[in-house]
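Friendly challenge for the regulars: who can give me the structure tokens for this chain first? No prize, just bragging rights.
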Amino acid sequence: MQFKKIIAAIDLDDDLADGVINTANSLAQKDGSKLEIVSVWPLMSVMAPAFSTDVAVSSVVVTENVIEMHKQGRQESQEKLDALCARLAPNATAVILDGDPAGAVAEHAKETDADLIVTGSHQRNFLSSIFQGSASRDLVKEAPCAVFLVTKAFAKKQAGRPG
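First reply, four minutes later:
Bragging rights claimed.
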């Protein structure tokens, strides 16, 4: 099977990000595919979590200052993604999506008619996945195309191979 459009879905702060990009880039080069590297920025809700000295976590009404901080954080994420893309897959396009990771990536894959999504999976045990969730498991359920999961072991193995 030849892939025409591949999406590498990463969390910018995840240690598997490089492995996911390298894997997706390798597949894209093999098939001459278009590669897009995406990361997801969370939506801002009407109430934002905040910390105060008398209560551990509280909610505050979103102010213009909070909105500006949200926009600035998104812009910094785009710049970080652009730099990562330039370093590891210079022919790829870098895109920040908004929303829930699994839902946003699946919807983007559907809209862009992607053939494959490459993403990382930490292979958490049952108890950890209950408390921390699993974005990769949710993505597999929602994806409109094939999903290639890059594990730590696979990323390590790929890193050891000559380019």
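The two ends are 22 Å apart (CA to CA). The helical segments are 17-31, 64-88, 101-111, 126-132, 135-142, 152-159. Your move, everyone else.
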